[in-house]
Request: fold
Amino acid sequence: RSQLELGQVRQEIDRRMAEKEEEFNNTRKNHARAMDSMQASLEAEQRSKAEALRIKKKLEGEINELEIALDHANKANSEAQKSIKRYQNQLRENECSYEE
Reply:
């Protein structure tokens, strides 16, 4: 009779051990999936950050080029304004000399 009880206790212990192992394996699998998901998120974030930095550098370069172009355009405009004033003065002088 004690052998029977001992066998039943062993079976119960084996059953509980199997349940705990299955629980542990499920928990391990869930954690592995969570880690994979977090790793994928991290990699996606790193790719996005790298892309954003690439775009930022490109835009900074374009801004620099536009600032240079604006500076050149402003200088050309200033020169054109000076030429216009010179031509207006020459026109006035010619009108005055024509009237005399």
User: Anything to note?
Assistant: The chain is about 100% helix and 0% strand. The first helix runs from residue 2 to 99.
